Amino acid sequence: MQFALPPRKTPIAPPYARSSRFSLQRRKQFKAVAILGFALLVVFFLLSQLFYTSTGTSAVPVGTPSVVIVTVLDRAGFSNEYTQKIVKNREDYAKRHGYINFFANVSDYETALDEAPKSWTVVPAVRHAMASHPYSEYFFHLGAHALIMNPTKSLESHVLEKSRLESLMRKDASVVPPDSIIKTFSHIQAQDVDLIITTDNEDMNPGSFVLKQGDFAKFFLDLWFDPLYRTYNFAKAETHVLDHIVQWHPTILARLALIPQRVINAYSKVSSAATTDGTYKEGDFVIRFPGCDTDTKRSCEKEMTPYYRLWSEKLKNE
């Protein structure tokens, strides 16, 4: 007697098996996508760091000069010969070290001055230079009545290199001579510095200074050029305003380095405001003739002539 066998049942997979298989595959896909995304982020970060500069701008164009030399000329007040001497002196220096010049003219900023003394043009001129060269890092303002006497010294090796600047910085020194109670910070380091300047025997002197491109520079120049200060009739215009804002604004003092006068701002022997060791000596980087354009007993062209001749002779002998 045969018994009917029950029909063979086809095994049925648990309802979650297919779902589990797809979940595992999906997790693998998500993991692969996550790894790929992370890798792309790392590559993007590395590339951004490669092209990032300390000025806060990316992709600096090839050949961008690190230093821009800013000189404000008064073409209406200077003779053509005198102007050409200044221009030739600056161009020679810039060419030697791969820098670039920014020659401004007093008349370019007459409207912005609002009848303030034309010596104020230093501020908008530097700001103009920064806008014209947004990828350059340092801006070296040197007044027109000055000559670079030792062009072999690059600004980097002479002032800007970290170890060099550290050795030059005057810490815990009176901001305004001779005995201002406001002093430079003793803890400031070279990497914190955005403004490098000197004092003479009377004031902080803006005839020669170095300013680093960045947000601080914009803030500093805007504050310095505030209309309230320009109309206040300070005895020495922008110079006394600079004395004022450095003493009353710790934000500026915290980014400032005072260095010995002769490093970038040696005065001619006729200039009485030089510090004890601030008068020009052979081998110094620059010589300036402050006051030669305001003292009726002096002549900028006559004072510069022997030094220009000396500088020219050095060029011929190189």
What keywords describe this structure?
single chain, 318 residues, alpha/beta, Spore Coat Polysaccharide Biosynthesis Protein SpsA, Chain A, 6-stranded mixed β-sheet, two-stranded antiparallel sheet, 12 helices, 8 strands, 41% helix, Nucleotide-diphossugar_trans, alpha-1,6-mannosyltransferase activity, Glyco_trans_34, transferase
CATH superfamily: Spore Coat Polysaccharide Biosynthesis Protein SpsA, Chain A
- What number of structural domains do the residues give? 1
Low-confidence stretches: 51-57
Mean pLDDT: 89
Distance between the termini: 127 Å
Beta strands, count: 8
- Helical residue percent band: 40-55%
Could you tell me the radius of gyration in angstroms?
31 Å
Q: What structural class should be given to the helix and strand makeup?
A: alpha/beta
Shape from CA axes?
globular
Would you kindly provide a written description of the structure presented here, covering whatever features stand out?
The chain has helices at residues 17-51, 80-97, 110-113, 122-132, 155-160, 162-168, 215-224, 227-230, 238-248, 250-253, 261-264, 300-316; strands at residues 67-73, 100-105, 138-142, 146-148, 195-199, 204-212, 256-258, 286-288. The protein has 318 residues and is of the alpha/beta class. It has one domain: Spore Coat Polysaccharide Biosynthesis Protein SpsA, Chain A (Alpha-Beta Complex). The strands form 2 sheets. It has a 6-stranded mixed β-sheet, with helices on both faces. A two-stranded antiparallel sheet has the order 4-8. Helix 2 (80-97) links the parallel strand 1 (67-73) and strand 2. The chain is globular and about 95 Å long. The termini are far apart. 32% of the residues are buried. This is Alpha-1,6-mannosyltransferase subunit. One of its GO terms (cellular component) is mannan polymerase complex. Keywords: Glycosyltransferase, Transferase.
